[in-house]
Amino acid sequence: MMKRMNLLTVLVGLLALGAVSVLAVDGITKRISFARGKSSATVRGAVIRGDADTWIVRAKAEQMMTVSIRSVEDNAVFTVQGPDGEYLQDAGEEDEARGVTNSLPYDGDYRIRVSGTRGNATYRLTVSIK
């Protein structure tokens, strides 16, 4: 009886971990590169409901970064997180940003996280740094 109970506990635990893993699934994580002599780049992608893609771009403090997104059903939004982990102005979790321009506070990697507001989202993300 004790063996059966331990086995049941282990199975329930594994099922719970599986459910958490499914909820935590994320899309791609890629670095954005600029072509030689260019200050902007456009990438394309698609996220499924509840999923997010992460795009990483390196920049220097005091540069101006403009990020904009277009999607087929106008249902893709983004956040921008600085190297310090803080969100840039108008590009936080509650903002549902589709276009922002900010002076960058730090040197380092900025993480642009793209998600859908409803359903699946096919998008085109443009990043410009000057």
Explain briefly what this protein structure is.
With 130 residues, the protein is α+β, with helices and mostly antiparallel strands. Helix content is 17%, strand content 43%.
Architecture blueprint of SSEs:
Layout: H1 2-23, E1 29-31, E2 40-47, E3 52-59, E4 64-71, E5 76-81, E6 99-103, E7 108-116, E8 121-129
Parallel strand pairs: 1-3
Antiparallel strand pairs: 2-8, 3-7, 4-6, 4-8, 5-7
Describe it for me?
With 130 residues, this protein is of the alpha+beta class. The chain has a single domain (27-129), classed as Sandwich (Jelly Rolls), CATH 2.60.120. Helices cover 17% and strands 43% of the residues. It contains one helix and eight strands. It has one helix spanning 2-23, and strands at residues 29-31, 40-47, 52-59, 64-71, 76-81, 99-103, 108-116, 121-129. The strands form two sheets. A four-stranded mixed sheet has the order 1-3-7-5, with no helix packed on it. Strands 2-8-4-6 form a four-stranded antiparallel sheet, with no helix packed on it.
List keywords for this structure.
single chain, 130 residues, alpha+beta, Jelly Rolls, four-stranded mixed beta sheet, 1 helix, 17% helix, globular
CATH fold annotation: Jelly Rolls
Query: What's the overall average pLDDT, rounded?
Result: 86
Largest β sheet strand count, sense and barrel closure:
4 strands, mixed
Strand order of the largest sheet: 1-3-7-5
Would you identify the regions where 5 or more consecutive residues have pLDDT less than 50?
10-24
What is the highest CATH level, the class?
A: Mainly Beta
The first-to-last residue Cα distance is 69 Å
Helical percentage: 10-25%
Number of structurally distinct domains? 1
* Backbone structural class: alpha+beta
Under the CATH scheme, the architecture is Sandwich
The general outline is globular
Secondary-structure element order, N to C: HEEEEEEEE
How many beta-strand elements? Answer: 8
Strand content: 35-45%
